[in-house]
Amino acid sequence: MARTPKPRKAGRRSPLAAAALIGIGLLLTGGIYAGASAAVAATTDQTSTSTKASTLTVDDGKKLFQANCATCHGLDLQGTANGPSLLGVGELAVHFQVSTGRMPMQANSPQAPQKPVQFTDDEIAALAAYVQSVSPGPTYPESQILDGQGDVAHGAELFRINCAMCHNVAGAGGALTEGKYAPSLHSTTALNMYAAMVTGPQNMPVFNNMNLSPEDKRDIISALLYLQQNDSPGGYDLGGLGPVSEGLFIWIFGIGALIAITVWITAKSN
């Protein structure tokens, strides 16, 4: 006689249900904890940053200047045999030089190279504010000039006319005389593009509002930002360095391939 299985009691759960419920609970608890921790950390970082920014003053900038810059530029910004005067350069020039790591300069050379930045953003702002307070000069532009929403076509035309002879038509940079060079603009910020045009660092000329209006500067910045954000539509751009790199590529790979094919055909015929 076959045994009749006992009917399962109503409401009885599978043995795996408890483990599943525990796992779901752990996942939910861990997710909530992680989210809360991240939010608290972000709030703490913002608070500490705001506190740090609020505590750095012009006096702090003066102390930073005396400790890091006065040896070359003089205690009163008057300059020395090792560094030019900073009277009248303004906070914009300070921001450009320090935020790109060009200053403080490690050693005298034909041109100050870019290197890792030594100061925080707040310290750079304090340094710039101190220099501006001693001898005012070019200052930060309106945010609209840096928004990248200008006339890209017009900006590209202005760049080709005024800048491409040194920086290359694609903004890739180029060599100058006596060991100097025009740097690549592929990673330059909008603010530093404007600062370079207004302050004329290194061998770059100063473009005042008589040469390039604020709207012209906005268009140039917009064109350069467009280049940064859009890859070359023609394929591999070889660094955008023009006929030198392109000719070298053809010479090595193009003619090299022809020679290899010629040798192969000769070998096969023999």
Automatic annotation (TrEMBL):
<dbReference type="GO" id="GO:0005506">
    <property type="term" value="F:iron ion binding"/>
</dbReference>
<feature type="domain" description="Cytochrome c">
    <location>
        <begin position="56"/>
        <end position="135"/>
    </location>
</feature>
<feature type="binding site" description="axial binding residue">
    <location>
        <position position="73"/>
    </location>
    <ligand>
        <name>heme c 1</name>
    </ligand>
</feature>
<keyword id="KW-1278">Translocase</keyword>
<feature type="binding site" description="covalent">
    <location>
        <position position="163"/>
    </location>
    <ligand>
        <name>heme c 2</name>
    </ligand>
</feature>
<dbReference type="InterPro" id="IPR009152">
    <property type="entry name" value="bc1_cytC-su"/>
</dbReference>
<keyword id="KW-0249">Electron transport</keyword>
<feature type="binding site" description="covalent">
    <location>
        <position position="72"/>
    </location>
    <ligand>
        <name>heme c 1</name>
    </ligand>
</feature>
<keyword id="KW-1133">Transmembrane helix</keyword>
<dbReference type="InterPro" id="IPR006311">
    <property type="entry name" value="TAT_signal"/>
</dbReference>
<keyword id="KW-0479">Metal-binding</keyword>
<dbReference type="GO" id="GO:0008121">
    <property type="term" value="F:quinol-cytochrome-c reductase activity"/>
</dbReference>
<dbReference type="InterPro" id="IPR036909">
    <property type="entry name" value="Cyt_c-like_dom_sf"/>
</dbReference>
<comment type="subunit">
    <text>The cytochrome bc1 complex is composed of a cytochrome b (QcrB), the Rieske iron-sulfur protein (QcrA) and a diheme cytochrome c (QcrC) subunit.</text>
</comment>
<feature type="transmembrane region" description="Helical">
    <location>
        <begin position="248"/>
        <end position="267"/>
    </location>
</feature>
<keyword id="KW-0812">Transmembrane</keyword>
<feature type="domain" description="Cytochrome c">
    <location>
        <begin position="150"/>
        <end position="228"/>
    </location>
</feature>
<feature type="binding site" description="covalent">
    <location>
        <position position="166"/>
    </location>
    <ligand>
        <name>heme c 2</name>
    </ligand>
</feature>
<dbReference type="GO" id="GO:0005886">
    <property type="term" value="C:plasma membrane"/>
</dbReference>
<keyword id="KW-0677">Repeat</keyword>
<feature type="binding site" description="covalent">
    <location>
        <position position="69"/>
    </location>
    <ligand>
        <name>heme c 1</name>
    </ligand>
</feature>
<keyword id="KW-0472">Membrane</keyword>
<keyword id="KW-0349">Heme</keyword>
<keyword id="KW-0813">Transport</keyword>
<protein>
    <recommendedName>
        <fullName>Cytochrome bc1 complex cytochrome c subunit</fullName>
        <ecNumber>7.1.1.8</ecNumber>
    </recommendedName>
</protein>
<dbReference type="InterPro" id="IPR050597">
    <property type="entry name" value="Cytochrome_c_Oxidase_Subunit"/>
</dbReference>
<feature type="binding site" description="axial binding residue">
    <location>
        <position position="167"/>
    </location>
    <ligand>
        <name>heme c 2</name>
    </ligand>
</feature>
<dbReference type="InterPro" id="IPR009056">
    <property type="entry name" value="Cyt_c-like_dom"/>
</dbReference>
<dbReference type="Pfam" id="PF00034">
    <property type="entry name" value="Cytochrom_C"/>
</dbReference>
<dbReference type="Pfam" id="PF13442">
    <property type="entry name" value="Cytochrome_CBB3"/>
</dbReference>
<dbReference type="GO" id="GO:0020037">
    <property type="term" value="F:heme binding"/>
</dbReference>
<keyword id="KW-0679">Respiratory chain</keyword>
<keyword id="KW-0408">Iron</keyword>
<keyword id="KW-1003">Cell membrane</keyword>
